[in-house]
Amino acid sequence: MNDAGHICGVTRTPQDPAVIHRIAANLRTIRLSKNMSQETVAYNAGVSLSQIHRLENGKINPSIMTLYRIASALDVSIHLLLAENPDHEMWDQVE
């Protein structure tokens, strides 16, 4: 590792709690708006129930593949899970 935080050309960045909590809030909002249980989302996404629970509680940092699978299970675009300030037009896509 050099002084810039690079390892073999990859820059390591610290986890951003605000992003993790934003994903958690968006996941929960979308899931509830679709009247889906955590169990259903987990099953449809092919992830564990505990992973969905920990994601919704902001306890873990999901991989992009996990986010993609969850978005697919919820039948929404992945950008809705990542949206910083989702507006009403974006949430209209959820229904």
Descriptive overview:
The chain has 95 residues and is mainly alpha-helical. It has a single domain, classed as Orthogonal Bundle (434 Repressor (Amino-terminal Domain)). It has helices spanning 17-33, 38-45, 49-56, 64-74, 78-82, 88-92; strands at residues 6-7, 10-11. A two-stranded antiparallel ribbon has the order 1-2. A hairpin with a 2-residue loop joins β1 (6-7) and β2 (10-11). α2 packs across α3 and α2 (38-45) packs across α4 (64-74). The protein is globular, with a radius of gyration of 15 Å. The model is unreliable at 1-13 (pLDDT under 50).
Spatial order of strands in the largest sheet: 1-2
Number of domains: 1
Report the sheet with the most strands, covering strand number, pairing sense and barrel closure.
2 strands, antiparallel
Low-confidence stretches: 1-13
Q: Which CATH class is shown?
A: Mainly Alpha
CATH architecture: Orthogonal Bundle
**Strand-residue fraction?**
under 5%
Question: What is the succession of H and E elements?
Answer: EEHHHHHH
Full CATH superfamily name:
lambda repressor-like DNA-binding domains
**Radius of gyration from CA coordinates:** 15 Å
How many DSSP-defined strands?
A: 2
Number of helices, counting only DSSP H or I runs of 4 residues or more: 6
Helix content: 55-70%
User: How is the CATH topology named?
Assistant: 434 Repressor (Amino-terminal Domain)
